[in-house]
Design goal:
Blueprint: H1 3-25, E1 39-41, H2 47-52, E2 59-63, E3 66-68, E4 73-74, E5 80-84, E6 92-94, E7 100-103, E8 111-113, E9 116-118, E10 132-135, E11 141-143, E12 146-148, E13 153-156, E14 162-165, E15 168-170, E16 187-191, E17 195-198, E18 201-203, E19 208-212, E20 219-222, E21 225-227, E22 232-246, E23 249-251, E24 263-276, E25 279-281, E26 288-291, E27 300-305, E28 314-315, E29 322-325
Parallel strand pairs: 1-2, 2-5, 3-6, 4-7, 5-8, 6-9, 7-10, 8-11, 9-12, 10-13, 11-14, 12-15, 13-16, 14-17, 15-18, 16-19, 17-20, 18-21, 19-22, 20-22, 21-23, 22-24, 23-25, 24-26, 24-27, 26-28, 27-29
Length: 328
């Protein structure tokens, strides 16, 4: 082989690597699992029974098809539920009767990946813990998943350490879970514990896209698109960070119904938040709204800078402890 031929071959390999790296970074379906080592599950199997009959820490290789469940799939410590497919659709785990599709309550370090999860039901009588696609779990990772059409929340009730990446969370929440009674819970993702949302598409959820509530504490939402959520793309309240909201596209939120405090990003009684390099536009009333009410903590140490507003309003910069600069 000549030096020139070797160099050309090396260049082709490097170009291929770059392309594959870009595809992976985009959160696209290039990351679909085409192979999996573990307990293989095929359409027709009772996924609830299969999961219940396996020890904690099992990897379930769930092959393409639809798995209908009438009760929640129980997630144990270290379990890995991985969809196996070469092209869309992802393997689908769905219900028309269960209050949760996956119940990860009490589990630690589980993984749910490459699945479509939908259909959890419920009403105000079982709020807030019903109507969830995925419920509970400490240090839970959700990767390259589609979580949709759940009556209350796509993901809710997680313990600390929730990581959601390269996923699509959409069309979750409904009227029974978004009444103006002070007990609203509907969201794409809602947690009262630390969470990290990366490179995900969170859209068309009935109430909030991502909701940090009741001292969730540390939160990161980065590199994601939060589009057309009913009340707010991101709602963070009653918390002390640090929280970082950066590199997101936050557009078209707040238009579903007439509620109070609609915004692309709503910050209400929160300390230690850094908001930068986000792109806003077409959010109802405000792109960014910072509010201080009578609840703990007192809003402060909030920095909002270097964002593109595209005509959206920015409100709350006059509050003591809120700094706004280089927003255009």
């Amino acid at each position: 082989m000549t030096t020139s031929t070797a160099l050309k071959g090396f260049a082709l390999v490097m170009a291929f690597a770059v392309v594959m790296g870009l595809l992976a970074a985009s959160g696209g379906d290039s990351q679909a699992a085409t192979s999996c080592t573990g307990k293989h599950v095929y359409p027709g199997a009772n996924l609830v029974s299969v999961a219940a009959g396996a020890p904690a820490g099992t990897t379930f290789c769930i092959h393409q098809g639809t798995y209908s469940v009438s009760q929640a799939v129980i997630v144990q410590d270290g379990d890995r539920f991985i969809g196996v497919y070469q092209s869309l659709p992802r393997p689908i785990v769905k219900t028309t009767s269960a209050r949760m599709v996956f119940n990860a309550a009490g589990s630690n370090r589980a993984l749910i990946q490459d699945l479509r999860i939908e259909g959890a039901v419920g009403d105000q009588s079982c709020q807030p813990s019903c109507g969830r696609g995925i419920s509970g779990g400490y240090n839970l990772t959700v990767a390259n998943a589609r979580i949709t059409l759940n009556k209350n929340q796509g993901i809710g009730g997680a313990g600390g350490g929730l990581l959601v990446k390269n996923s699509e969370i959409d069309h979750n929440g409904s009227s029974p879970f978004a009444q103006q009674t002070g007990k609203e819970t509907a969201a794409g993702i809602k947690s009262a514990n630390p969470m990290n949302i990366q490179n995900s598409y969170i859209h068309d959820n009935y109430w909030a896209g991502v909701w940090c509530d009741d001292n969730c504490g540390t939160m990161r939402v980065q590199g994601s698109r939060l589009i057309n959520n009913g009340k707010a793309g991101i709602h963070t309240e009653i918390s002390v960070g640090p929280q970082i909201i950066s590199g997101n596209t936050i557009q078209g939120n707040g238009h579903f119904e007439s509620w109070s405090l609609e915004a692309g990003l709503l910050i209400n009684s929160v300390r230690d938040v850094d908001v930068y390099n986000n792109t806003f536009g077409n959010n109802l009333d405000h792109g960014i709204r910072v509010v201080e009410d009578s609840r703990w903590p007192v809003t402060g140490d909030v920095s909002i800078h270097d964002n593109t507003r595209n005509g959206d309003l920015l409100n709350g910069c006059s509050i003591s402890g809120v700094s706004c600069f280089n927003n255009r």
